[in-house]
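Thread: Aquaporin-3, structure

OP (GT): Posting the sequence first so everyone is looking at the same thing. Length is 244 residues per the record. Can we get the structure tokens written out before standup tomorrow? I want them in the notebook alongside the other entries.
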Amino acid sequence: MGTASFLQRVQALLRIRNQLARECLAELLAVFVLILITLSGSAQMVTSSGTKGNFLTAYLAGALAVMVAVYTAGGVSGAHLNPAFSLSMCLLEQFPWWKFPIFVAIQTSGAFVSAGAVYALYYDAIQHYGNGTLAASGPHETASIFATYPAEYLSLSNGFLDQVVGTALLIVGILAILDTRNKGVPKGLEPVAVALLVFSIEVSMGSNCGCPMNPARDFGPRLFTYVAGWGAEVFRWGEGRGQG
């Protein structure tokens, strides 16, 4: 009884009652999980030179990461995970505008911290693959583990169009899945449907830019690579760096 009482007191002390704080922590954890799995899939593919993964496995990891992340925070924050989705909810008047910058900051921070976790997890592999250097271009670049880069042939305007179309399709698909007026997805399987949507977009529109579809997913880890030593090249529109 004494142990049970002590645990109950600890739980009471740790319980967060402020709704906004709960939502922010849930969103932070969900984005951390999302990016941890997504970038680890890319890291396994890149550092093994394709022997332990390929674009298909990396895309699958990213799609399944979305499913896990939505299950993680869906009941608390709605599992936005993506500034583009948060913005869409604001435009549809389903999310207050004052929360928008807070969620964007939380989503970007979660992606940044998660990128650091992936770097630590794959540190030896990255160092081995890059011969001790952190390169953003060339045959042994590792920046594409963390952020997405354009294919060699892609122009800036075509890259912009690619991301607008892919992100718009993602948002429209999610809204359709969640719309109760449509043929409903069985309750509890909405995250699975969203994961399948993400996977379908990745395998059909991923060749141009790697299909990030999420500003926080791309900017947070990209900022981490800049801070960690890859240099300012990670923010330049370049060629030959692959797609992560």
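GT: Both are above now. Quick notes for whoever picks this up: The first helix runs from residue 2 to 14. Residues 19-235 form a domain with the Glycerol uptake facilitator protein fold (CATH 1.20.1080.10).
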